[in-house]
Amino acid sequence: MRKYLLPKEGNFYRANLHAHTNMSDGSASPELVKEVFKRMGYSIVAYTDHDIMLDRSHLNDEEFLALNGYEMEINGKGTPDWANMETCHICLIALEPDNLKQVCWHRSDYLYAHAVEYRDQIQFYEDEPDYIREYTGECISDMMKRGREHGFFVTYNHPTGSLENYTHYINYHNMHAMEMYNGAEEYNPRVYDDMLRAGERIYCIGGDDNHNRPTLYSDAGKAWTMIKANSLDYRSITKALMDGNFYATQGPEIYEMYIEDGVLHVVTSDVVKILFTPGNRRATVSYPEEGKTVMTTASYKLFDDNIYIRVTVVDERGRTANTNAYFIDEIKCW
């Protein structure tokens, strides 16, 4: 019996799940951000301006889908120096197109840059008190939990760029995914494995965190998420996110991933190396056959004592693609 981990049916859509515009601290308008990413072959952009979520449905067309969302930052105390300040950033992406109420809202604090100009347009739960952010695992986990409970896909962003380490992120719970990639600067496979081995069952995504400065393309198109869904409509895409039907990449492509007779098979674009990470000490690496410089397939015999399995592929330029982790007790079919 063949069990597909990436769905057999559907289409892959290229998505940027972390984007900023001139409505917070970015340089380009929402319309120009759409234009930039469509030119690069993207079908989806999640608009995640700092602390401000407005309806972006006017940007939708047959070839482009805007997801509504926002990013919140929880800053550490003890230093006024932004460059050395520990912080935690999380994105909330609405699962329904009409879910436009922000959670963890504060009526007077946290907005900055151009976001302050749109305060009166923001919707929030008016019967709830102002939410005070604290740079603690308990508070950050609570913010993630509230995001989930109110219908958002919650991501943990750029831990390296936030100056966070194991002692921070191991205390964060209730996220759906973490950023394996943040633009061209950040790659976090060890962070992902740390959290998986600690018991978190989460996905990994890629996003640009683009602000479109100093030029429109300088921080765009560096890393993205390939989402497989039946169609390019809001609920199909967010369902695919919740189901984990995607992978994160800097360029290499993963076409198929399935289990048959206890063996995991992967089909990719031309790559020079395919790594299998099982959460224990049974990791392996596959290389091209003798006399060949690239490969497009590899397989890995699964073991009952594997904790999970995830795959990394590497192309000739050193760019990588990463699948989500699939836990053996959920996928076992042999």
Overall description:
This protein has helices spanning 30-39, 137-149, 166-169, 189-197, 234-243, 328-331, and strands at 2-4, 11-19, 44-47, 65-75, 87-94, 101-102, 123-124, 152-157, 177-182, 186-187, 203-207, 224-229, 246-249, 254-260, 263-271, 273-277, 284-286, 295-301, 308-314, 320-323, 326-327. The chain has 334 residues and is α+β, with helices and mostly antiparallel strands. It folds into two domains: 9-250, Alpha-Beta Barrel (TIM Barrel); 252-334, Immunoglobulin-like, CATH 2.60.40. The strands form three sheets. It has a 15-stranded mixed beta sheet that branches. It has a four-stranded antiparallel beta sheet with strand order 1-14-15-18, with no helix packed on it. A two-stranded parallel sheet has the order 6-7. It is globular and about 60 Å long. The mean pLDDT is 97.
